[in-house]
TrEMBL record:
ATP binds at residues 128-136, 161. This is Probable protein kinase UbiB. Pathway: Cofactor biosynthesis; ubiquinone biosynthesis [regulation]. It comes from Thalassolituus pacificus. The chain crosses the membrane at residues 528-554. Its EC number is 2.7.-.-. Residues 483-517 form a coiled coil. The lineage of its organism: Bacteria, Pseudomonadati, Pseudomonadota, Gammaproteobacteria, Oceanospirillales. The active site is at 296 (proton acceptor). GO terms for cellular component: plasma membrane.
Amino acid sequence: MANLWRLWKILFVFTRYRLDSLVPTEQLPLSLRIALWLAPWRLNPVPSRLNRGERLRLALEALGPIFIKFGQILSTRPDLIPDDIVKELKRLQDDVPPFASDKAMALIEDQLGQKISDLFAEFSAEPLASASIAQVHAARLFASGKDRSNDDGSGREVVVKVVRPGIEHTIERDLQLLETMARLLVKYSEDGRRLKPLEVVDDYRHTIYGELNLQIEASNATQLKRNFANSKLLYMPEVIWEYTRSKVMVSERIYGIPVADIDALQAQNTNMKLLAERGVEIFFTQVFRDSFFHADMHPGNIFVSRNNPQAPQYIAIDCGIVGSLTEEDQNYLAMNLLAFFNQDYHQVAQLHIDSGWVPATTKVHEFSAAIRSVCEPIFDKPLAEISFGQVLIQLFSTARRFNMEVQPQLVLLQKTLLNIEGLGRQLYPQLDLWSTAKPYLERWMRERFGPKAAFKELKRQLPGWIEKAPQIPGLVHGALSRLNHMDENQQALQKEIAALRQELAAQKAQKRQQALATLAIGSGLFTWWQAFALGLPEVVGLSLAGAGMLLLIVRA
């Protein structure tokens, strides 16, 4: 019932803001176009005071955190979404209506166990920013610990992030609805199993609940800060662990320029080309060097340092969603991307089969031909005009014919890559993602599989091998003993099977004899009864019955 009520609310919001008018009906089948035209919500007029971008933004805000996240992703794709809609969706990144400050302060005091006045020298009740999951308040720590009497106004400036009260219930309700829809998709859609919607929803559940726990976000931020220590590419604000709990996180305040504020970046003469390229380099460094990447890199979470505009440095916040890949996924992904860059479609097809992303029975030449038919027209354009997002969309559409399965572990990566490309194109429309990424991937492959990497792995494994060397003779002897024991057990098992077969054969013969004896007795009695019915002498009947029984026994 809860799911039905939530679905009803979604339909109500859909009709209230007449989102059906945003659907490109000319691309739909005629029957569906007629159904949409006759739908009862068309009696509701399109709100004339709101443009289509405002209607979509307000609808997503009304539906809650999961839908707001979806809008944030769309806001980074001006190459896919019209400009007027992108402009409105950008407001979802840090301009979601805040919740009451007294509730935020009460939650902070409850989590940290003290009053606001005892925790901070200054605290701004007006939030700096408000997002779908939490909102942020500015504050200042006491100059010396928590002793207000010794405060001289030089305490560290911080931001206090607090989770929206009751948000868990809203998210769980939406996740249950998504899970129900996923089950229906698996049950009734031909593509349901291939798309793995249940696995995707489960993965998203894990991700979103990780984002609700600010201690997890704080640990993610600390790990990213460690990975990029002293880096010229990325700076991560320091977490103040003493003031961090599951619903509250306090961290260093930064004063960068929002990455979406193109005018401010250009006003300080920022090298926009280098800024866009460094964003791509940061992404590939996180994915391939660290296997630990910030997976929520929409513009509201990214700033640019005001220092050294000619060598700009990124500042990232909000690390609630991070992703990681196994070594196998890293290798296959890197080799796939390089094969794309080199237009080696046969290699792309073979890698998909080897990795299990498509069934092992897929014919390589057919799959590679299909990939070529999609990619060749795209590669006729200058590299700077090629959208990697468009390539992925068309490739997945083509691979659908070959039963390509969705890989839940790559969903976050795909989303982040699309965000990075969209952000890079906003900063520098001529961004050549391909030529920026290719040298990095080639260098990573050399480092991963070259002689230096092999020697490094040998050095890493050698102490363990040396430690286990004295045990090797005993391990070999034990393995051989187990093999001999297995042979003996196998021989004993074979004897038992042979004896069992003999016993079964004897039981079959015995049952056959019993059946024949029963048949003989029955036929004898029947012959005797027939002779008696015909009025023959009793001795004749008995003789015929005995002869029949004897004949059956002899034939057996």
